[in-house]
Amino acid sequence: MQRIEPPDAGPTVERLRRRGDVIIGRELTRLAGRARTLGPRDLAVVEEALNGLVERLVLERLRAVPHRAAELDRLFDDADPTAEATPDPVPR
Question: What gap in Å lies between CA 75 and CA 70, rounded to an integer?
């Protein structure tokens, strides 16, 4: 019987990590502009926390179910991490 290897989530994990890095960098820039009392050390702590959040919330789970990597690829396929996010319209 031939064993079927599970798909490798590595490329998807790397793409999501890069996307997270871009978004976190953008948010840190905005935060630095809004909260001018935050210094470089403060921002580094916030960055570390946000990176940990991405790791635990998304990447660890993806590594646990690599067979779902294609679904995440489709979900984020057309998303440009360098583009500004536009909020969904709120129904009134």
Answer: 9
List, for residues 70-91, the tens digit of each pLDDT value.
888 888 776 555 555 544 444 4
pTM to 2 decimal places:
0.70
Report yes or no: 30 and 83 within 8 Å, Cβ to Cβ: no
Distance of CA 32 to the CA centre of its chain: 20
Long-range Cβ contact pairs of 44-51 (< 8 A, separation 24 or more): 50/24, 51/20, 51/21, 51/24
Give me the residue spans of the domains in the chain. 10-76
Average pLDDT score over the chain: 82
Tokens 């702590």, residue? 45
